[in-house]
Amino acid sequence: MASRDDKLDPVWDNMDRSMGQLFMMGFDGTTVTPQIRALIEKHHLGSVLLTAKNLKSAEQTAALVYELQKIAHDAGHPVPLAIALDQENGGVNSLFDEIYIRQFPSAMGLAATGSTELAYEVGKATAQELSSIGVNWILGPVLDVLTNVRNQPLGVRASGDDPQEVSMYGVAFMKGYQEAGLVTCGKHFPSYGNLEFLGSALDVPVITDSLEQLTMSALVPFRNAIVQGLDAMMVGGCAMSSEGMNVMHACLSDRVVDDLLRSDLGFNGVVVSECLEMEALSHNIGVRGGTVMAVKAGCDAILLCRSFSVQQEAINGLKLGVDNGMISEKRIYESLRRILAMKAKSTSWEKALNPPGLGLLSTLQPSHTSLSTKAYNSSITVVRDKNHFIPLSNILEPEEELLLLTPLVKPLPASAQSRELSDHAVMASPEPAVWERSASVMSGESVFRELGRSLARQRSGRVLHTSYTANGVRPVHEDLISRAGAVIILTADANRNLYQNGFTKHISMICNMQESNGGEKREKPLIVVSVSSPYDFAMDPSIGTYVCTYDFTETALTALVKVLYGEINPSGALPGTISQSQKLHLSRQHWLVENWNEERDANSLDGLIEACVDGGSGHRSELANTTSNSFLLHNPDIDEAHFVVRNSSTKALYGFCSTYFFRSTGTGVIGSLFVDPARRKLSIGHSLHNRAIRTLLQREGIKRFQLGSRLPNIFLGIPSGSSVEKKRLRQWFANMGWNTALSRPVCSMAIRNLSTWSAPEGLARSLAGAGVEFDMVFGWDYAENILDHIRTNTRQGVAEMYRLALADQKNCGIIRAKRPEDGAVLGSVIIYNDHSALAEFVPSLRDTHETTGGISSPVISPSVGEYSTLLQGLILLGVRQLKAQGCNTCILDHIDGDGNFDSLSAIGFHVLHSFEEVTCDAATWTMVPPS
To answer: What is the model's pTM?
Structure first.
């Protein structure tokens, strides 16, 4: 017999059994059919593809999956079936269950949130739901780059048109799936992002990009996912036509699979073919020959979606290929080893026959519902709102009517209503449906009808809803526009449904030509909402208010209603290069920056802080418990100047920046810079930053600049919460001239529940043998000794912190570490309670709602060899002292990250907020543009 891997169990000596593992097949129906049973029992089928036509509910799916696995088990399969499913979210979900399965945004919708962490959590939640009902293989993530966004079928299934961004989100989804125990399958290699369609179903779509072009763009996400541990890859059935690469079907070509994917990109996982039942492939080559070609090209799993006769033809074709020597047994075993290795990651008979089922789904439901709401709320994108039509309360009086115009499109399969929708239920004529605020939800209506009801429930006025078609603007539409106080138009892929584009532009023209009762021209407020591809009007400035939801599931449109009525601030951003070009365009705006005036601006700053804390992706938890007083030091040793961008009419602040000049060290500091989340990307931050730099440059004795301040202790540097937000902020400051590559990690830390805390025994013993004496002193009597010691530390704010502590001996103390021989101070640290002057500048102390103490500014003499031990000793004694004083929480308000995080974690501290502190020489700033 042909050679095979020695590690394979002898059970795989049966060639028919081994070849069966190389197929993934689907079937029609929601119960086990005789055909799929025969494929499993007689032909040893290794993988089953389930699609929407098989699935009615979570309970039915769990029963179906279990029965499939039980059939395989009873038939003597050595390993369970791989049960595969498409569950991309948005509009592409094979399984929908209103009770147990949550709806999440599409890939592009999640990219619009700006959070790869959110994408990871959604991927994990999706996979947990599938895993609970027995599915073990998810056909995702989508890794295609939309290099031609206006002419492609993928739409919001892809993350966007920027290769690096697609990589980030694709890997995040992949990691989430894997964390929940599913194996993954990237698609659609080598990319469906720029296909050319020749018109006939018998014509294969073509990739015309050269291999060099693909390498620079479309292949980037595939390459990165492979490096990060992608389990399987689906290779498409498209053609490739360029110089040096002419291929009729990618999945049948060894140049694509063995050379490009395996050799060039280094992929060693399972390769899945496109469905060989696709008309162009089966017509041009035939399924029997196509199966042999796919295996010879390097595919490990051959996909055949539904036709039993075609599936049998494929199985016979592979057997014939082996029998006549076209395919070696060695080649079969190569694929078998990859498939068995993949299955071992995600399943076993114990797991396959005992899935958690509906019990786990019930447990997951509350957290997944909350995650779904968060994801959708964060994805809604207001691309433009030139005349501030959002929220609707800005433009509509209670007695005015709101007109909703929606296209006639089929609801997405993920929609609950779509399951009951009939052709009769979609309104064929443009006569309006009118709902009062109290209208109840009626079953059997489309998702757009439910949107109309949701809009009506939010206001006391009436909502008119009618549809539009390729027949264009009719007189009834014009009458309704004239009657309404404002108009909302929904579009769904208007680039491919051109009647929507023409209708929307026509309505826009009508709205611009409306007249008031007095005969004067009055623009009728118009809001255009793209509920699928965001590219419909992204680059069309004639549409003044443009919103994107990325899909039109009920959950997405619920979030849309919240945005339209101002319940949530829209925080989504168009993914990819369009968003970047918008940022470049908007950055040309220059705002008037004014000096902070405490009497005039204090209340407005409190309002801005609240907006930032509550503002979606602009969320800044570091500002929690901060007030306008938190930024005002009133210290004679520190020059402070703060700036605002404000609306002089409404008194509202749009942005704030605080600066400090510490004369003792010659350091100019930007201590905070934040902008109203509803007004991001308008260059307010640029204007404030430039004004701050110019002001600090004028300080006499300026030596260096610093981002982040320990006094006041709000932002210690660039916040580094989520990886996406950290990257965005670092890039923003880098663009402003800061060398973020030279940043240093700093953080604030805390210990809670001091009443039950105890010091690590080993640490206490090591301190006893350190040969150092410790004491605690209060007040100015000890100032000379301590201030001489801390002069060895030139960091910003340290001297000022110690002076504040020395001046407040009732609420502050200083722990010293001394050399026994001569009493020389080797180290020191400040401890203080929540009544001290220091506490006013440390908002974290007010975040605990219980008795809290603080530790600040440890300084260790440069001559000390055991820096880490002494640091731990000082802070340990500080924690003990605060515990003795009755504190239940201890805040360490600033600590350097150079090896200190782990040593303090051993004491019991955990990180509250992380930052990247950035410093540079004053000479770095040679020219600052005007604000």
So the answer is: 0.64
